[in-house]
Design brief:
It is built from five helices and four strands, in the order H-E-E-E-H-H-H-H-E. By secondary structure, the chain is an alpha+beta fold. Strands 1, 2, 3 and 4 form a four-stranded antiparallel β-sheet that branches. Strand 2 and strand 3 form a beta hairpin. Helix 3 packs antiparallel against helix 5.
């Protein structure tokens, strides 16, 4: 009778050990899932951060393509001129132009300085306009060229050095000499002169507020 008791206790102990092993395996599995889940979440967060960074780069590039943002803290100053009415140089018929011009400068101080030179500036604008034809002024390219000419003339009136449009002076002069003559007598192409650096121009743009050609 007493010999059978240890056998029964051993049988009860075996299921208890198996239950503990299952519990340990389950706990380990849960911990593994927690670790894997945390790792996956970390990877997703990194991907999201990288995507946001790429989006920020794309936005910056887009802004750069559209040009720099204007400095709202230091906006430019606009100096409107009284309207111009001038006869044009058309030979076929009497044509005239009525043009409103606004000059954009870098600050109000320079705008005040320009007002002292306004009679000379207006004279230059009238001289430029009076040598234009209606065909030139009706074309967009002609208006853009007119704005450039007015800007250069106004700058020089203010004592500011500006560059002239590029002129191709590298072509050799024409000659009546026949081929086969000595190269010493053949005129050589002129070298293009190096442009010296000019100072920053406080006159930024010339804008047209109205433009009528009749």
């Amino acid at each position: 009778m007493s010999a059978a008791a240890p056998t029964a206790n051993a049988g009860a102990a075996a299921p208890a050990k198996k239950g503990k092993k299952k519990l340990i395996i389950m706990v380990a599995a849960v911990l593994l899932l927690v670790v894997l889940g945390g790792g996956a979440a970390l990877v997703l967060m990194k991907k999201k951060a990288a995507a946001n960074a790429d989006g920020a780069d794309d936005t910056t590039t887009a802004h750069a393509e559209h040009g720099a943002k204007p400095d709202l803290k230091h906006p430019p100053t606009f100096l409107p001129l009284d309207p111009f009415v001038v006869n044009l140089s058309d030979k076929e018929a009497d044509r005239y132009a009525q043009v409103g011009i606004t000059i954009e400068v870098e600050d109000a101080h320079f705008a005040e300085q320009m007002k002292a030179f306004m009679p000379a500036i207006r004279n230059g604008v009238l001289m430029i306009l009076s040598h234009k034809t209606s065909r030139e002024l009706l074309d967009r390219a002609g208006k853009e060229q007119l704005a450039d000419e007015i800007l250069r003339d106004a700058s020089r009136t203010m004592g500011i050095e500006v560059e002239d449009p590029d002129v191709d002076d590298t072509k050799p002069a024409a000659t009546d000499k026949a081929k086969g003559e000595d190269d010493e007598d053949t005129p050589k192409p002129k070298k293009k002169k190096k442009r010296k650096a000019v100072e920053p121009n406080p006159i930024k743009h010339v804008h047209f507020s109205n433009f009528i050609v009749q």
